[in-house]
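To assess whether ligand presence alters the predicted conformation, the chain was also submitted together with iron/sulfur cluster. Input:
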Amino acid sequence: MTHLLLHIDWTRCDGRGLCNELLPEILDRDDWGYPLARDHSGDPTITRRHLTAARDAVALCPRSALGLIPPRQG
Ligand code: SF4
């Protein structure tokens, strides 16, 4: 597997922005502090270079709103 996707569960996220601080090259932040994918996708791509930081973000998200998922097939 060459990459994973960072999935954000919007029903859980409360926009504190910790994930933005851990993944500044992947996530921007809107005016309310909610994460926005810089690639404008719903689930931004996480390559090997950002995998450790992404795993940290998943583990540290105070709302358990983040997950790493495999790319969709097809
Ligand atoms: S760390 Fe979690 S709760 Fe905070 S903005 Fe990111 S996804 Fe939302």
